Amino acid sequence: MREERIYRTEAIVIRHTSFGEADRILTLYTPERGKLRALAKGVRRPTSRKGGHLELFTHSQLLIARGRNLDIITQAQTIHSFRAIREDLERVGAAYYAGELVDRFFQEGSSDPRLFAHLLEYLEALGRTGRLEVALRAFEMRLLECAGYRPELRACVRCRGQLEEKVNFFSYSQGGVLCPACARAEPRAKALSPQALKVLRFLQDEELATCLRLRLGQELGGELEATLQGYAVHLLERELKSAAFLRHLRRQAQMVIT
Q1: Is the pLDDT of residue 255 over 80?
Q2: Which DSSP letter does residue 48 get?
Q3: For the domain bounded by 84-257, which CATH number is listed?
Q4: 1: pLDDT confidence band, cut at 50, 70 and 90?
Q5: Which of 169, 150, 167, 144 lies closest to 159 in space, CA to CA?
Q6: Hey, how many other C-beta atoms are within 10 angstroms of the C-beta on 108?
Q7: The pTM of the whole model exceeds 0.90
Q8: 82-90: long-range contacts (C-beta < 8 A, 24 or more apart)?
Q9: Mind listing the pLDDT tens digit for each residue in 233-250?
């Protein structure tokens, strides 16, 4: 069946790169076509009519023409601008982080409508919640599931025994939690407190709106961050630049407070 030369799709802009004198190559995530790259001609010109509709993290309705090397965006209309995100540096960093995760974990053309819905819900939450860390951790859990790396949190990934309410261990290579006995055979597994395991299960099972009711102390938040980001870095075999940027922002904020 012959593909249509022009197609219409919703899209969230997760990355852009300057191209030529006035163009940009956009990385988009769409509900039906997954991740794709498209050329936005002239959007860097001050007079561009499309530029404002194709900003980073904007949710837009697009009309796209198929091209020989890159598809070309011919029309764009904003659905959600998420202006509140761009008005706060930490929220910008949190949005960049989600975009980098999507970009790294998913190949072009790999479509998952669930991920589009999760990303859209996450961006909506970033604009209104003060609990950015909880939103980040909840999004990580949803992305890992969509990518096929849902961590096993209910039983030991090695012996399949029930996990007791005590310090267990998270194994990046096994993709889940080890009981203390099985962890002896894997010295690189990371200790996981009973409270952290409870919160990870909660983030995995509950809706985002419910998760955002959680309050995380600094120690528990750091443990959850280290566990989930460490797992993502292990899977990707590379560091995440946006995660380092978020840590830098956090250190600066702590310096101002003290």
Answers
A1: no
A2: -
A3: 1.20.1440.120
A4: very low
A5: 169
A6: 11
A7: yes
A8: 82/57, 82/58, 82/123, 82/124, 82/126, 82/127, 83/127, 84/126, 84/127, 84/128, 85/57, 85/123, 85/126, 85/127, 86/55, 86/56, 86/57, 89/249, 90/132, 90/246, 90/249, 90/253
A9: 999 999 999 998 888 887
Contact yes or no for 103/25 (Cβ under 8 A) = no
Identical fold for domains 6-81 and 84-257, yes or no, is: no
The CATH homologous superfamily of the domain defined by 6-81: Nucleic acid-binding proteins (2.40.50.140)
The rounded distance, in Å, linking the Cα atoms of 121 and 141 is 14
Q: Supply 214's token pair.
A: 């959680």
Number of residues assigned to the chain: 258
Query: Would you list the domain boundaries of the chain?
Result: 6-81, 84-257
CA–CA separation, 53 vs 243, rounded Å? 27
